[in-house]
């Protein structure tokens, strides 16, 4: 499956910081490499790919905008 090239018709990327762009790149790479290969089968089987939850946690996808508790303390834009 081809990777999502990203389309920025409104030049929104120019509003993002380097950190925000890096977070988005990390999330897109995770989706391309880990979610897209299994999501069709998960949909057909009516199941959530729970085997990916630990990896998503290690990448800091959960509670990333919280400060403390071992969370990343990212901005709400980065978390989105």
Q: Can you offer a commentary on this structure?
A:
It is a single chain. Helix content is about 50%, strand content about 0%. It has about 80 residues and is an all-alpha fold. It is flat.
> Looking at the structure, what is the overall shape?
flat
SSE order, as H and E?
HHH
Largest sheet: none
Q: Look at the structure and give the mean pLDDT.
A: 89
Record field, number of beta strands: 0
Report how far the terminal alpha carbons are from each other: 24 Å
Helical stretch count?
A: 3
Q: Low-confidence runs (pLDDT<50, min 5 residues)?
A: none
- What is the multimeric organization of the chains shown? single chain
Please give the radius of gyration in angstroms. Answer: 15 Å
Give the structural class. Answer: mainly alpha
Helix content: 40-55%
- Beta-strand percent range: under 5%
